Amino acid sequence: MAQFTNVFVQQIAANGNAVFSETPVPGSNCIVHREGAGIVTLRGVTNQCRARYLVQFNGNIAIPTGGTVGPISIAIAVEGEALASATATVTPAAVENEFNVSAAAYVDVPRGCCVTVSVKNVNTQTIELQNASLIVTRIC
Fold it and tell me: CB-based contacts of 105: which residues, under 8 Å, 6+ apart?
């Protein structure tokens, strides 16, 4: 298991990734992340056909000052592609209204391969993210 966090407010451009600057719980050699980056690499180190991971995200999102009020979303992405089943959407009434969101997904990694996961802004405008936490747990 590993946990990556960033408590500070960060602005994420459209289609950009959240950045995780702290590692409260370091991962094993199967879960690889460089502090300050937005991508986590999951490795398929197993004797079985695949390794399975549970990826969980939680954070507060808002529309920054100067943004357009409307629905905003953030999603767990695998290999850069946002997962529709792991997308959180809220509709703030005004800019800087924060909402707590969460998403989770199981990710299978074939034996001997690697898969990257990230948390992606799937909007057409910049959003703010604060108190971001990404927990990755190897299930089997």
Answer: 54, 55, 76, 78, 83, 85, 86
Paired with 42 in beta bridges are: 31, 115
Most distant pair of Cα atoms in the chain: their distance: 52
Is residue 92 very low, low, confident or very high in pLDDT (cuts 50, 70, 90)?
Answer: very high
- For the entire predicted model, the pTM comes to 0.95
Tokens 């180190």 locate to 45
As a residue count, the chain comes to: 140
Q: Which amino acid is at 60?
A: N
Cβ density class 31-40: b for 16+ within 10 Å, e for less: bebeeeebbb
User: Concatenated DSSP letters for 36-79?
Assistant: TBS-EEEE---SSSEEEEEEEEEEEEEPPTTPPPS-EEEEEEET
Contact (Cβ atoms closer than 8 angstroms) between residue 107 and residue 40: no
**DSSP assignment string, 82-125:** EEEEEEEEE--SSTT--EEEEEEEEEEEETT-EEEEEEEE-SSS
In which residue are the tokens 């950045």 written?
19
**CATH class of the domain defined by 2-138:** mainly beta
The chain-wide mean pLDDT, for the chain, equals 97
pLDDT, position 82? 98
